[in-house]
Amino acid sequence: MSTTGQQDAQSLVDFYEVVKGRRSVRKYDPDFKLTDEEIKDLLAAAVLAPSGSNMQPWRFIVITDQELKQQLLPIAFNQEQVVAASAVIAVLVDLKAYTDAPLIYSKAVEAGYMNEETAEKLVTNMSNFVGSLPPERLLHSALIDGGLVSQQLMLAARAKGLDTVPMGGYNVDQFRELMGISERYANVMLIAVGKAAQPGHPTVRLDVDYVTSWNGFNR
User: How far is CA 11 from CA 1, 14, 115, 159, 177, in A?
Assistant: First the structure.
């Protein structure tokens, strides 16, 4: 096998180890602290996730301040990972992310990925099409993108030997009030990130054959 082939095989093994090694961890070492740069590195990997028309609607609130975590604790139904994990990252989505189309496509022009004429057409199309969609359609699409970026964040953390747990169990209205979030943004989830004090317990999955149909839906 060539050196390149060996590297590709090793990368594949490493990827599946990351996927299989991710666990929802709820007991964290409170003395372990991530730096801001380490958290930004995780987010930089996360935002490589795909999104509809590349509009990248995800927005993050990184919570590392211990006093703020204490305020968040009752809002998250006293789940101890809120205060013990190094950070809690709130994943939101911007329901008007299409208004960033000029910024996104201008960056694509600067990178040499498209010319200015194409970028201008795409901006116009995005404004005319997406801007006319009903709110529920925008929310549905944005939440799909929010799920993609959230999973990518958790896998990036696992690849660096870190642990995470996605959290949907919290009082969304109280959280929005605490953080001053406007109606333009929708909540996706909270993700605790840190170093496990106890490993997450193994779980089972339904067999692939149980959840998969071929060339039609037969359930």
Answer: 15, 5, 35, 11, 43
